[in-house]
Amino acid sequence: MEMINMTINGQAVQVPANYTILQAAESVGIRIPTLCYLKDVNAIGACRMCVVEVEKARSNPVACLQQVAEGMVVRTNTPALRNARKTTLELMLSNHRMDCLGCSRSTNCELQSLAQEYGCDNHKFEFGEPLKPDIDDSAIHLVRDNSKCILCRRCVAVCKHNQHCSVIGPNQRGFKTHIASAFEMDLDETACVNCGQCIAVCPTGALTEKDDTKKVWAALADPTKHVVVGPAPSVRVQLGEEFGMPIGTNVEGKMIAALRRLGFDRVFDVDNAADITIMEEGTEFIDRVKNGGKLPLITSCSPGWIKFCETYYPDFLENLSTCRSPQGMFGAMVKTYYAEKAGIDPKDIVVVSIMPCTAKKFEAARDELSTNGLRTIDVSLTTRELGKMIREAGIKFTELPDETCDPFLGMASGAGHIFGATGGVMEAALRTVYEILEGKPLENLDIHAVRGTDAIKEATVHVAGMDVNVAVTSGLENASKLLDMVRSGEKNYHFIEVMACPGGCVNGGGQPHQPGYVRNFTDLRAVRAAGLYGEDANMELRKSHENPEVKELYETFLGAPGSHKAHELLHTHYQVRPMYRD
Amino acid sequence: MDRSVLEGDPHAVLEAMAIAGYAIGASKGYIYVRAEYPIAVERLKIAIGQAREYGLLGEDIFGTGFNFDIDIRLGAGAFVCGEETALLTSIEGNRGEPRNKPPFPANKGLFQKPTIINNVETLANIPQIIMKGADWFSSMGTEDSKGTKVFALGGAINNTGLVEIPLGTTLRHIIYDIGGGIPNGRKFKAVQTGGPSGGCIPAQFLDTPIDYANLTRIGAMMGSGGMIVTDDSTCMVDFARFFLDFTVDESCGKCTPCRIGTRRLLELLNKITDGRGEPEDLDKLEELCYYIKANALCALGQTAPNPVLSTLKYFRDEYEAHVYEKRCPAGVCKNLMHYEIQPDVCRGCTACARKCPVGAISGTVKQPHTIDVNKCIKCGACIETCRFNAIVKK
What span, in angstroms and rounded, lies between the C-alpha atoms of B111 and B91? Predict the structure, then answer.
């Protein structure tokens, strides 16, 4: 890449020619504040926070969009610029309901941080009535409060460009602009797939997950209830961020310790259920290949993807694996297998899942996901909600010892752990499928072809005399491109892994919030995924079918993968969904 | 101005666009026209139909192998779609919101393709310039601005309407000789050029020859050529407020300075004209104006403060009267004036008392009447009725 010479705040620097001023400044230790800019999501130059002075330019450009040039002289923090940014913030604050003390984003809000940095006068432009809450909480996973929205449009962008759904957008214009759905429909009436990416990218408290922690506190306080919890793979490489630890630190041991101290009666691991998923799905795949079943088989652990398929690509419903997601299998096994083993009435068991995901709240409420008439998952919490509970309980997370899960449904292989990364499910499945068909393990359990953050990844695995073509994609815009190619016949695969969130669950809608200035320069997806692949690489147990707890489950309870009982408890079905509810 | 060209000489525009297309190698042109101009739209359609019939638009024009055709796109009622990038975005089927530049339309314009975009009036000049030559065109106008400009005269002026004049003509000539001066014997106060994006020009500049550079120099703007004349019955604060009201309504809402900033400017002006202005409001107003000018994303926002800044510059005494004395010198702002019957002029004819819709006027026949200011709604009926000019605004 060609380099150019420029000057930033009097300092001579050399940067790649394709950098923006924002990137150039960051590379030499200068952070220009941004609000609306979000790398790979939103680049519209709307908020005007990142204005900079460029010598000889007609006006002040925005650093997030302006490309550098040879000899460019830039100033990023003159008194005039600082004053301009302060005024921009004060204007935003004048139209922002001041709810900081109780707001779930307090101390982790990009507007609040900048307002404090710039010493803003909250009330400078407050000429009207105090703002009232302007809430849409119709959807099961999300609360939108437009009185806190700064109209950065990150949510609109991620829904439209990255997630292919476009169910929210700016309505009306000028001062009356507000984010909503077409014709002011409730979000629940639209084809929103509950992926929660909008929440993950929101810089303020305008978009938050529905707080289900109260239900969990109530269950924990109820002596008649046996409360069981299972965290998902990604949670262990996200949770540390809620406590200031470096991004992607694998805090599995502390996570389990914290869950125990919150008062859960049993701490299991949904990664164990991920291993069960591989047993079922691997069997399903082999069955479809051998018996002319519908191919490509498409994974079904991502409820955002499932709802997307049901709504936007219903012609692929028969391709979906009938396997429940790990969460679905987890709750089912807790309320049957574990209940039997522990001698507890399943009606007295409350199953809580901790997920990096908001669509899991929708999935947990699906009728198709019940087990013997009971909710399979009673409450699904996001990583953020768990962080909140741990703080509220006064647990000093970073000082916790490492603990391990309770037996029966707590042990997981490395294959189960890597489910959180895009390509993880495919890699886990191939490790098992290959060995079942070939009778011997893969030479190299690390299948790098399906790892990484590329939009669409392809690989061909030669197994049992067959060339198995697999594809992996994450992010629904990418999924839609991939499916279009399959639909048109341009591409032919046997097995496809789809995750709704770009980069997989590690970048899910329930993740800890990271501000723009982190997201714009750190690939969260790669860093968090590395935490999972790292754990897997250091384990002895790296294949789902070798998991002793899973073996015991089948031997003593389910029979064989794909058995009638397995189908009853571990599989599900789907429905065609209209784009808009009547 | 543009409407009159589209209604009166659409072929000039079509021809110019074909020439422009030929110059840059484009085969497609679009005319974006307000849906509020149905006659212009209708005549454009007719003209395009005619041009196609004659082979002046379409494939292989004049057998040269050059293809060029034009489509019409209607606006949906957004002033901001006059901004070039917002216009392009609107044609693409999106919300009419401007884009950051660079990239400029010439590099990435309509559908991300190299695009040139020009105003109707500009284009209408092209065929004549090509026919009669650049020297002919340059023989009119000033050093800075060549040719002619169409102006729309309105407001407190005897002859309203459109007038095309060579650039360099003075304001005095336009207002007094062409416009016929100020009606009702009132005095000229200022002329607003460039509409909501422009500035007002007081009497001291009447002899300025109009061109782009001069107008910018005195704090105004050419804009589309709008010229609104005000007389001594206009309150310049209320005048600025009127333009801001428009701008706030038309703001697209994308960028913070315009979306929230112009609204706050309007609220400050409302505060001042309502009689609630505080001393620091004037500084706040001015600072906010300069902030919006420097930081707004597009020209709508960048020029929205111009009416405020230019009236502050030339009529600051009116602002100060509103804020410090709670008085509107022009007698316009309702909360800052009251109607009073001059007792030495009033004949006690009771005509006004009978006309008053709220019964605010009392008095006995042949005795001076009085207005109860608490009941008075300042409708002005009494002033219109009085044959003796006994009622004044104070």
Answer: 9
Neighbours of A118 (CB within 10 A): 18
Tens of pLDDT, residues A270-303: 999 999 999 999 999 999 999 999 999 999 999 9
Domain membership of residue A84 (yes or no) is no
Angle at the Cα of B204 (from B198 to B207), degrees rounded to 5?
A: 85
* Section B203-214 average pLDDT: 94
* A88 and B CB contact within 8 Å: yes
Q: Do A53 and A142 fall into the same domain?
A: no
Residue carrying structure tokens 């030479």:
A443
Task: Give the pLDDT confidence score for residue B133 in this predicted structure.
Answer: 96
H-type helices in B27-119, by residue range?
A: 38-53, 84-91
Residue A281 annotated as catalytic: yes
For chain A, positions 44-63, list CB contacts with chain B under 8 A.
44-48, 51, 59-62
One domain, residues A148 and A271: no
First to last CA, chain A: 54
Tens digits of residue pLDDT in A181-225: 999 999 999 999 999 999 999 999 999 999 999 999 999 999 999
Positive or negative, the CA dihedral A510, A512, A517, A520 is negative
Q: Give chain B's end-to-end CA distance (angstroms, integer).
A: 39
Tell me the ipTM for this assembly. 0.93
Domains of chain B, with CATH numbers? 2-130 (3.40.50.11540), 148-231 (3.10.20.600), 236-324 (1.20.1440.230), 338-393 (3.30.70.20)
What pairs with residue B315 in β-bridges? none
Please give the model's pTM, rounded to 2 decimal places: 0.94
- Catalytic residue list contains A109: no
Number of residues that make up chain B: 394
Q: Using DSSP bridges, classify how beta strands A349-355 and A297-298 pair: parallel, antiparallel or unpaired.
A: unpaired
A159 in active site: no
Give the pair of three-digit tokens for residue B235: 């309150």
The amino acid at residue B5 is V
Q: B338 to each of A57, B274, B332, B334, how far by Cα in Å?
A: 51, 13, 10, 7
The closest alpha carbon to A150, from A108, A121, A179, A187, belongs to A179
Largest Cα–Cα separation, chain B: 89
